[in-house]
Amino acid sequence: MSSNRENRFGTIIQIGDILVSEEVVTEYFACDYPVCKGCCCIIGDSGAPLEEAEVDELEKHYPEFSSLMRQQGKDQVDKDGFFIIDRDGDIVTPVVDGTGECAYTTFDGEGNCFCSIEKCFFAGTCSFRKPRSCWLYPIRVTRLRNGGQALNLHRWHLCKDAYEKGKREGIHVYEFLRDPLTTLYGKDFYDALCAAAEHIPG
Fold first, then answer.
1. Which residue in 131, 128, 147, 151 sits closest to 139, CA to CA?
2. What is the pLDDT of residue 56?
3. What is the CB-side half-sphere exposure of residue 123 using CA atoms within 13 A?
4. Which of 12, 98, 178, 195 has the fewest Cβ atoms within 10 angstroms?
5. What is the mean pLDDT of each run of 10 residues along the chain (202 residues)?
6. Domain ranges in the chain?
7. What separation in angstroms does the CA of 60 have from each of 70, 82, 90?
8. What is the C-alpha separation between 117 and 45, in angstroms, rounded?
């Protein structure tokens, strides 16, 4: 592990072949769902980024979680398939025409937005939790040409309250994302990230 690589973007933490921006350990973040009501799933100019393997997971588990989806979402999947290619050439979840709403969302009777895939996961009826990009947010992952990965902080005005709540409660980004970081990259990776965080000012 190395955490002393300096450039104009700040300190880069290197753990194996994974590069982590210092903002992941210095910035504060904690979702404030009662305030945002899941608006990140329904506002935007593109769907959630997907990995190629996740497309197969979506298709495989669609019969399990589609019953929770809104009809608009089902119609969009019927039209576009389980993914689309956005204007940047990235694989993303389909978005309901004329809106920023991910096709895989669901709502309760009070207008709160949820991921239909994750609801089925917690109900024990689906083994796929949700796209990695959603679970790791506000971290965005970039695949590097050498086969490694870069983990950077993504800033979105919709999550202003989450940054404020994190700072108020003293929860850093990497602490808020302990579960997905540990699950996706392993306990050793997370322990190394915690150790690096102790040596980075801020």
1. 151
2. 96
3. 11
4. 98
5. 48 93 95 82 85 95 95 96 92 91 90 92 95 94 91 88 94 97 96 92 63
6. 1-29+138-202, 33-133
7. 19, 10, 21
8. 21
**Helix locations, the chain, DSSP H:** 23-26, 33-36, 52-65, 71-80, 116-122, 132-135, 160-169, 173-176, 178-185, 187-197
> Which residue is it, tokens 């190395």?
2
Question: What are the b/e assignments for 114-142, b being 16+ CB within 10 Å?
Answer: bbbbbbbbeeeebebbbbbbbbbbbbeee
Do residues 57 and 121 touch, judged by C-beta distance below 8 A? no
Length of the chain, in residues: 202
Tokens describing residue 132? 């990695």
Unique residue bearing structure tokens 């902080």: 153
The Cα–Cα gap between 165 and 143 comes to 30
Q: In angstroms, rounded to a whole number, what is the distance separating the alpha carbons of residues 141 and 90?
A: 13
Which residue shows structure tokens 């978005």? 95
